[in-house]
Amino acid sequence: MDTLSSINEIKIAVQEYRELKKELKRKRTKLNSLTAKYSFIDTMQSTDVDDIELENNVLDLLMSIGYNTQKPKEKRDLDGYATYNGEMIGIEVKNSTGISENEMFQGLKYKGRNDRKGLETKTTLIVWNNAKSNQEFDSFRIEDAEIHKYGIITTKELVKGFIKVINEKISVQIFHTILTKEGQIKFSNKKIKELE
């Protein structure tokens, strides 16, 4: 190879190869970094994610697009809080095959206690990881959410909205407006067009 490397054509090809190899390494490092940064998206839609990890992933998702998030200090409280433009959302995360009526109202119960203490939230949001059952909210759960003025959303739908923000299809303000609606929350194109 030493004799061959004295040929200019080979020298240039070797140099181009090394430059491409360095560039490929930089691209791979960037890809690995981005994959690690957004890995919570797959985790929060997984069938084997544990409850605490799911709660943290939901808060990480919101924090990554501009929300201030925090975990509660007390054990008997909502799973987290997310604030955007001064409006606080109380978040209750559910990670089960099915979601009972009692579980649906748990967030509302904690919101009432917090409002009484002076920690007022704009709304309560129930986030359900439905990956184990792949079912949607039934009509009774949707009706309860509308009557009692809280929002319900699946992790899949939350991720769908997040991706629309990351890909600049919607603003964080539109995301927030949809997220604070009552009843079942969807990031459909129809809902988005209504707000634009």
TrEMBL record:
Coiled coil among keywords: yes
Top-level taxonomic group: Bacteria
Coiled coil among keywords: yes
Record's keyword terms, sorted: Coiled coil
Coiled coil: 7-37
Identification of the protein by name: Restriction endonuclease
